[in-house]
Design goal:
This protein starts with a helix and ends in a 9-residue tail after the last strand. α4 crosses α5. 48% of the residues are buried. By secondary structure, it is of the alpha+beta class. β9 and β10 form a beta hairpin. An 8-stranded antiparallel β-sheet has the order 9-10-11-12-22-19-18-14, with no helix packed on it. Strands 8, 13, 15, 16, 17, 20 and 21 form a 7-stranded antiparallel β-sheet that branches. Helix content is 33%, strand content 24%. One of its GO terms (molecular function) is lyase activity.
């Protein structure tokens, strides 16, 4: 094998040779420009923790408190590992396989054992890390590209270079921890056998990834930059910051510029924001330790700290909103956000971050986490504010937005309106989709990703084929599908060129609303969607109003699905169920995965009060009624379809979830609906309250750029949601009037909830 490796090295391309000479020239240029070693580069550790942190932690482990508890738990864990033989296996498996997971455990074990050495001074811990690193130094130079390489970003230790970068981010810190006890010979062996080859593999030998503005590139630049600080290689740090050629076309700083919006929203969504956060905050901390003059945490108006707060805020009941390729079980207690919260608190001592840290229930052995532990011991935490917010997307904040509408306490109602850009390859084709939460549970849901992370029996732990055939497709989401095709025809490159337009976001007491549109998801269809979350204190009621208008020059089939969590209770229209044989709803674009359970022909059977109502019971013991205004235009063919996921799924990879789909044949159509939480079911005490909807009727009125939804409750009380779609909000001096059935209702601002109304008419 060694001869083969040497042969490969001897046939290095002329281009790579030129790159090496270029690096030497750049190094000379750096010296001429006065770019020298960081002031504290010779001291160790010098990355996420420094010598002052070690001294403070050594004192803390002698005192009772949360930090001492964390130290004892980690010490016990490390001691168990110390009694096990070191194994550095030849890489064979993909994600979730034995060798893959063993190398992951190894880098974590080296990191943990190294920090225990720093805190105890017991050289047996340093010896263990050294011996493992020596084994890696013997193995790595012999390795070819991984036998189960996943894609163009292949690794050697792992199936993809991303994991290789994660390995180095942890391993270079472990090496930094034990550096002082190593002999020069041992350092040379470890650095030339493992550390340097991995760093070069991630950078010079993988320029397509290293220079990429993507989370894979972030991990690679962080790994190489941190290695540069430990090995006193300032050129490596500069290349990590500004790309291999120092041209600023890639690198860590370019990633900070482009991957986050001005509000700290990451373009791939909260799940990948959580994952990408680790290299961002870890490398930034290393930069701050070594070169505070760069003021990295002040860059772009404090974008890294904003990103940490935004990640925490984009959660509900401790779980991250599952946008795009998201594993739905990931929450704020992930190690990446634990690190981020600790580093942020170490910088700004924000007491609301302690609230998140308390929920995370994890104390790390770092100087910043020590401050968190001390803050919690002193009960300094204050509630983290989960507010209604608009999070702009795009590096300039002009590529759509994610809108989160909240009402009351953190586990009360929340409506998530996704009007963001595509989110690169991990994005889903779900423009203007939504989710709804209440009493701690998902009510109107998003599927997230079709993947069983690190479970090798399910496609090696990677994304399942159904992630493409179902989870990414538009019908898997709660948004408009035209002619059973997905947005942008399911083409990522096309989708990345476009984004929705945000028309307005407005927050008032008891009323939050937002409106957005897109005309590029389909060639011949434009659609606009407005959501409002309304609190009516006098009724002790909260409702969500949804207005979606589709326009086209020709007739289309419009499907508007609602993927709901719970058991169907009732509908106010007749359904024709498939009792003995099921058929699929379609043949492609996700439709092939849906069993058609029942159909209601709303054109032939007009539901009561022109409302098509579906009521279900969620596991939280509450009822939810979704009432949709049915068009009285007899020329429109209208159906309600009830489906269950699981068709064309031979390996049973998909969860058996249910949905109902409002289908209309039309050129122009406006969908108007209201979601209403109500009642209570207590099976333990055997009582049921308010199982039926309180909404009796809806009407929709359009008057030029003004619109209104007229709501009548079953007790006769009526309300009017009036909305101004003009570019400018109305003032009291420039108020407008909406005329409904001869009655004029003046209003100003962006929108108003008027009522209770003193009128007996409702048409």
């Amino acid at each position: 094998m060694k001869k083969n490796v040497l042969k490969q090295q001897s046939t290095t391309s002329i281009g790579r040779t030129l790159r090496y000479f270029g690096v030497i020239l750049v190094g000379i240029a750096l010296a001429l420009l006065g770019i020298n070693l960081p002031a504290n580069a010779a001291s160790h550790p010098n990355l996420v923790i420094n010598q002052q942190d070690v001294a403070a932690m050594q004192q803390a482990i002698t005192e009772q408190g949360a930090f001492q508890d964390a130290f004892k738990a980690k010490l016990n864990q490390v001691d168990i590992g110390l009694n096990q033989s070191i194994e550095v296996p030849l890489p064979q498996d993909g994600g979730g396989g034995y060798t893959h997971e063993k190398h992951k455990r190894n880098y974590q074990q080296m990191y943990d054992t190294g920090i225990i050495y720093q805190l105890t001074g017991d050289k047996k811990y340093a010896e263990y890390v050294k011996n493992m690193l020596l084994q890696y130094a013997a193995l790595y130079p012999e390795l070819p590209v991984h036998p189960k390489r996943k894609n163009s970003n292949a690794g050697k230790l792992f199936w993809q270079g991303l994991n290789e970068a994660v390995w180095l981010v942890h391993t270079i810190q472990a090496y930094d921890f034990i550096y002082p006890v190593l002999t020069q010979t041992e350092r040379n062996t470890i650095e030339t056998g493992a550390i340097i080859p991995v760093a070069l593999f991630l950078s010079e030998q993988s320029p397509h990834t290293f220079n990429k503005v993507h989370n894979h590139g972030t991990w690679a630049t962080a790994a190489v930059g941190m290695t540069g600080y430990v090995l006193n290689k300032p050129l490596w740090v500069e290349r990590a910051l500004y790309d291999l050629d120092l041209a600023k076309k890639g690198g860590f700083m370019r990633q900070l510029d482009e991957l986050f919006s001005p509000d700290g929203y990451y373009n791939e969504g909260p799940y990948y924001q959580r994952y990408a956060l680790m290299p961002f905050v870890t490398f930034a901390k290393a930069i701050e330790q070594n070169e505070p003059q760069r003021k990295i945490f002040e860059y772009r108006d404090g974008i890294i700290l904003k990103a940490i707060n935004t990640t925490a805020a984009l959660s509900y009941n401790k779980l991250l909103f599952p946008l795009n390729d998201a594993i739905k079980s990931k929450g704020i207690d992930t190690i990446e956000l634990v690190n981020g919260v600790a580093i942020a608190y170490g910088l700004n001592a924000d007491p609301t971050l302690l609230d998140i840290a308390k929920q995370q229930n994890t104390i790390l052995l770092t100087g910043d986490s020590l401050k968190v532990a001390q803050g919690l011991d002193q009960q300094l935490q204050q509630p983290f504010t989960f507010n209604s917010e608009l999070y702009r997307d795009g590096k300039q904040g002009d590529e759509g937005a994610l809108v989160v509408m909240r009402n009351g306490k953190p586990t009360d109602q929340a409506l998530v309106y996704k009007a963001t850009a595509q989110g690169l390859g991990h994005g889903h084709f779900d423009k203007l989709t939504w989710q709804f939460y209440d009493q701690g549970n998902e009510i109107v849901s998003d599927y997230g990703a079709a993947r069983f992370l690190n479970i090798e029996a399910k496609s090696g732990g990677g994304y399942l084929p159904e992630n493409t055939s179902w989870a990414k497709q538009t019908i898997a989401h709660n948004t408009l599908v035209v002619d059973e095709t997905s947005h942008f025809n399911g083409k990522v490159k096309q989708a990345n060129k476009h984004h929705p337009t945000i028309h307005f976001y407005d927050q008032q007491q008891n009323l939050t609303l937002a409106s957005a549109s897109i005309d590029s998801a389909y060639d011949d269809v434009a659609f606009k969607r407005t959501f409002a979350l309304i609190n009516i204190p006098q009724r002790e009621a909260v409702i969500a109003v949804d207005i979606l208008s589709a326009t086209s020059s020709q007739s289309h089939q419009y499907d508007l699905p609602v993927h709901y969590q719970g058991q169907l209770i009732d509908t106010n229209f007749e359904r024709e169920a498939s009792l003995t044989q099921l058929s699929t709803l379609g043949s492609d674009n996700g439709y092939q995965h849906l069993w058609l359970l029942a159909t209601a022909n709303l054109s032939q059977y007009q539901p009561r009060d022109s409302l098509a109502r579906v009521t279900w019971l969620n596991d939280n013991g509450r009822f939810y009624s979704h009432s949709t205004l049915v068009s009285t235009n007899t020329g429109k063919h209208q159906q309600m379809l009830f489906t269950q996921l699981g068709a064309n799924d031979p390996n049973m990879n998909l969860r058996q979830q249910t949905a109902f789909i409002y289908r209309v044949e039309a050129s122009d159509h406006t969908f108007v609906s209201v979601l209403e939480p109500h009642g209570k079911y207590n099976p333990a005490k055997e009582f049921t309250l308010g199982a039926t909807s309180n909404i009796a009727a809806l009407t929709h009125h359009q008057q030029a750029e003004l619109s209104a939804v007229h709501i009548r409750f079953t007790d006769g009380e009526q309300y009017l949601l009036a909305i101004n779609h003009l570019e400018q909000a109305l003032t009291e001096q420039n108020q407008s009037v909406i005329n409904i059935n001869g009655v004029q209702y003046p209003f100003n601002g962006r929108a108003q909830l008027l009522g209770p109304l003193n009128t007996g008419s409702f048409n």
